[in-house]
C-alpha cells in the first residue's frame, strides 16, 4: 500500500495554437489509506489531476510518487492504480464475471481457477454474486457501477482513482452508494483519490478534501476545517449547502454597515483594522430570528423541510438564507429581525478574498467511540 506525494505539479495543454493551464503548482501529500476528495467547479482541473496520477496524461512540470516510488514517467499500466469512471466503461459483450476478471487475465499470471475465486469474493463483497452471468445491459445503473468497482477492487491496486463515479445514479442510490463505497474503502485500506464537483459528496466522503479553483489548489483539510476555517471567500462560498450568506460592508470603527441598513458592531474589531470595506459571511444555520433588532429583512419564500425551515429573505437587494427551527415560520412578504453571534461571523478581504476571520466558537471536533465493530 502507498501514500501519494504530488509535488509542484503543472499541467499545460498545448495545442500549438493555444495553451490551457489546467493545473498550476499543485502539491499535496496523501496518506496511506486516506480518502482524499478533489472538489471544485467544472473546469478547475480535478480530472486533469486525476489523469496525471493515473498516467493517462504526461505532467508538464513536477513529480508524482506512490510510496517511495517516483512514478512521474511511468506508463499507466506500470503504476498499480485502478480507475473508476462516471460512465462505468464495461465491456457490453462480456458477462459480469468476465468484466470483473478481465484485467486479472491480462495483467497477472493467475490461473483461471484463482481468478474465478477472486471474482467471486469481490462479487460477494459488492452484493452482485447473483448477477455474475448477466451482461451489463441487463443491469441497473447502480449494479453496473458495482461491477465497475468490482473490476477495480479485484486487482488489489495500491491506489484507487475515481472520477465522479456516482454521478449517473439517482439521488437515493447515490447516497446509499456513497456510504457503501466509504465502508469498502475503509475495509480495503487503499489510498483513494476521488473527484467530484459536488461539495455535499465531498464533505460526506472525504477524510480530507482538496478544494481547487482555476487549476489552483485553494485548501486541503478535513471537511470541518474547510467549512469552519476556509482560507478565502471562494472556499467559504463553495463549501456548504445552502451557501454562506455574503454581503459587502463598510467598516466604521468597530461597526460594519451594509446594504438595506445592515449593521453589526464587533466586540473585537482587530480583524477589520486597516480595511475600509470587508466582505461579511454568515452561514444560514447561524442566523437567529428575533422579535426586534437592528437588522430587518423581507421574507420572500419559506421552505419547510420537516426537521427545519429554510427562510429566503431579502435585505437591500441582497438575498439571505436562514436555516431555522420548524416552529419558526414567518408569513411570506412580512419582515423579520435577525441576529447572529460574532463567533459565527466570517470576514474576508474585499480585494483578494483572503479570510480575515473565520468561526471562533469552540466546537469539540474529536471523534468519539473507541470500540472496533
Ligand atoms: P474538471 O475536471 O475540474 O472539470 P478538467 O481537468 O477537465 O476540469 O479541465 C481543466 C481545464 O483544462 C479546463 O479549462 C479544460 O477545458 C482544459 N482541458 C482539459 N482537457 C483538455 C485537453 N485534452 N486539451 C485541452 N484542454 C483541456
TrEMBL record:
Localisation: Cell membrane
EC number of the protein: 7.5.2.13
One MF term in the entry's GO annotations: ABC-type transporter activity
InterPro entries found in the cross-reference section: AAA+_ATPase, ABC_transporter-like_ATP-bd, ABC_transporter-like_CS, ABC_transpr_MalK-like, ABC_transpr_MalK/UgpC-like, Mo/tungstate-bd_C_term_dom, NA-bd_OB-fold, OB_MalK-like
GO annotation, biological process: carbohydrate transport
Topology within the bilayer: Peripheral membrane protein
Catalytic activity: L-arabinose(out) + ATP + H2O = L-arabinose(in) + ADP + phosphate + H(+); D-xylose(out) + ATP + H2O = D-xylose(in) + ADP + phosphate + H(+)
Entry-linked PROSITE patterns: ABC_TRANSPORTER_1, ABC_TRANSPORTER_2
Superkingdom of the organism of origin: Archaea
Name used for this protein in its record: ABC-type D-xylose/L-arabinose transporter
Amino acid at each position: 500500500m502507498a501514500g501519494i506525494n504530488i509535488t509542484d505539479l503543472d499541467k499545460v495543454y498545448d495545442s500549438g495554437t493555444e495553451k490551457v493551464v489546467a493545473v498550476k503548482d499543485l502539491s499535496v501529500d496523501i496518506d496511506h489509506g486516506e480518502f482524499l476528495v478533489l472538489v471544485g467547479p467544472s473546469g478547475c482541473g480535478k480530472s486533469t489531476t486525476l489523469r496525471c496520477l493515473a498516467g493517462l496524461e504526461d505532467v508538464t512540470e513536477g513529480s508524482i510518487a506512490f510510496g517511495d516510488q517516483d512514478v512521474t514517467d511511468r506508463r499507466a499500466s506500470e503504476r498499480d492504480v485502478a480507475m473508476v469512471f462516471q460512465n462505468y466503461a464495461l465491456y457490453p459483450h462480456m458477462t459480469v464475471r468476465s468484466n470483473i476478471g478481465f484485467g486479472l487475465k491480462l495483467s497477472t499470471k493467475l490461473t483461471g481457477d484463482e481468478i474465478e475465486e477472486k471474482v467471486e469474493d469481490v462479487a460477494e463483497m459488492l452484493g452482485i454474486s447473483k448477477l455474475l452471468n448477466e451482461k451489463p445491459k441487463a443491469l441497473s445503473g447502480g449494479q453496473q457501477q458495482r461491477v465497475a468497482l468490482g473490476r477495480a477492487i479485484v486487482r488489489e491496486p495500491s491506489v484507487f482513482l475515481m472520477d465522479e463515479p456516482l454521478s449517473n445514479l439517482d439521488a437515493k442510490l447515490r447516497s446509499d452508494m456513497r456510504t457503501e463505497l466509504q465502508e469498502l474503502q475503509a475495509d480495503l485500506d487503499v489510498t483513494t483519490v476521488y473527484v467530484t464537483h459536488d461539495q455535499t459528496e465531498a464533505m460526506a466522503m472525504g477524510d480530507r478534501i482538496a478544494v481547487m479553483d482555476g487549476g489552483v489548489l485553494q485548501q486541503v483539510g478535513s471537511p470541518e476545517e474547510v467549512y469552519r476555517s476556509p482560507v478565502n471567500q471562494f472556499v467559504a462560498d463553495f463549501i456548504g449547502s445552502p451557501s454562506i450568506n455574503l454581503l459587502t460592508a463598510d467598516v466604521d470603527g468597530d461597526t460594519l454597515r451594509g446594504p438595506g441598513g445592515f449593521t453589526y458592531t464587533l466586540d473585537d474589531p482587530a480583524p477589520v483594522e486597516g480595511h475600509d470595506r470587508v466582505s461579511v459571511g454568515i452561514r444560514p444555520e447561524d442566523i437567529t430570528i428575533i422579535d426586534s433588532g437592528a437588522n430587518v429583512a423581507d421574507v420572500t419564500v419559506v421552505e419547510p423541510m420537516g426537521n427545519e425551515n429554510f427562510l429566503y429573505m431579502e435585505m437591500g437587494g441582497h438575498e439571505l438564507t436562514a436555516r431555522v427551527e420548524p416552529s419558526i415560520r414567518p408569513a411570506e412578504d412580512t419582515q423579520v429581525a435577525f441576529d447572529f453571534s460574532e463567533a459565527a461571523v466570517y470576514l474576508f478581504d474585499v480585494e483578494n478574498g483572503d479570510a480575515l476571520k473565520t468561526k471562533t466558537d469552540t466546537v469539540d471536533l474529536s471523534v468519539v467511540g473507541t470500540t472496533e465493530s
